[in-house]
Design goal:
two-stranded antiparallel ribbon, mainly alpha, 56% helix, single chain, 109 residues
């Protein structure tokens, strides 16, 4: 059995979702990614990754009505327990990889 690993952008989207909480939708996700990665992020790219993460069972989504303020229906996303497990595993892997590099690259940021 092969173990699926997180791609870089999948990892970033999951982290943005965790930062935003269980009611995140596309615009705040894009803004969160741009703020923390210092890169321009396309909404379409985020949607593609969100769909892929949902197919893997790492996020779930639901349609929400606009409420009293009006507007349009939005699809809100949240990280599942399995998605959280994947993020924690990726974090542990990166920590192991960073461990000991101080002598090579200086202080780890």
């Amino acid at each position: 059995m092969t173990r699926e690993v997180l791609g870089e952008f999948e990892h970033q989207v999951l982290l943005a979702l965790l930062r935003l909480g269980d009611d995140a939708y596309s615009t705040p996700i894009v803004l969160e990614l741009e703020e923390h990665t210092h890169r321009s992020v396309r909404s379409a790219a985020v949607y593609i990754v969100l769909r892929r993460l949902e197919e893997k069972g790492w996020v779930r989504s639901r349609m929400c009505s606009p409420g009293a303020e009006g507007g349009r229906h939005r699809r809100h996303f949240a990280v599942t327990d399995d998605g959280l497990t994947r993020v924690k595993a990726a974090c542990a892997t990166y920590r192991r990889l960073w461990d000991g590099l101080e002598s090579v690259i200086g202080e780890v940021p």
